[in-house]
Amino acid sequence: MPVSDPIADLLTRIRNANSANHDSLEVSASNVKIEITKILLDEGYIKSYEVVQQPVQNKIKITLKYGARNREKVITDLKRISKPGLRIYRSHDNLPTVLRGLGIAIVTTSQGVMTAKRAKKLGIGGEVIAHVW
Amino acid sequence: MPVSDPIADLLTRIRNANSANHDSLEVSASNVKIEITKILLDEGYIKSYEVVQQPVQNKIKITLKYGARNREKVITDLKRISKPGLRIYRSHDNLPTVLRGLGIAIVTTSQGVMTAKRAKKLGIGGEVIAHVW
């Protein structure tokens, strides 16, 4: 069955795997899901991701990150902001900050998927797809 | 020692690993190297790639693809076209084809790294970074 909101599905699978202390999870791949995953890696929220060619649809394997000592969670939560039924757009001077900069907002812009911090620096707005903290 | 042409280095490492029939190889990660690797996956030249967070510089692990029967090579060769000392740019109506469409040309455009085929479709030119066949 096709997923109605593949980005929400990605965030939910990461949230569930993280809650259950799993080492990794797999989702079907798409360009926007790979870009979001890459941002999670660049921002230090996950340990690695792998994109694997598959006959029908490629998949992404995401390896989660936990603290070295007591396996503390690195991701507290991920929240879908813009939704297919209610799109949320923000101009560059109105982009959100998450927990006063402790979290990140992920934005789709004309120049690709990036953090709100980077979009502000570039002076471009976009669709606020998720918050991660 | 920093590599003077990281893209040439990526292509050389893939070429060498492929010649030696290795299953996989690792290179230091950068955005452009990840984008080139993603195109190699999308175009069916490699089996998978993994981006792993590292203390200093992230790394990419590339898993090569060989034929199922006799481990035939999927990649014949990769060639650097534009070079730091001699940049090669092409307008959209002058983009190269490789082996009459059996290979691909990889182009950096204002809209990201993509195949020459896609750039032509979008009507944009760019820097021809490599040929793969």
TrEMBL record, chains A, B:
Q: What molecular functions are annotated in GO for this chain?
A: rRNA binding; structural constituent of ribosome
Q: Name one Pfam family in it.
A: Ribosomal_S8
Keyword RNA-binding part of the UniProt annotation: yes
User: HAMAP family in the record, alphabetically?
Assistant: Ribosomal_uS8_B
How does this chain assemble? Part of the 30S ribosomal subunit. Contacts proteins S5 and S12.
The yes or no answer to whether the keyword Transcription is present is: no
Put simply, this protein is called Small ribosomal subunit protein uS8
Q: Which GO terms describe its cellular component?
A: cytoplasm; ribonucleoprotein complex; ribosome
Q: Which GO terms describe its biological process?
A: translation
Q: Which organism is it from?
A: Capsulimonas corticalis
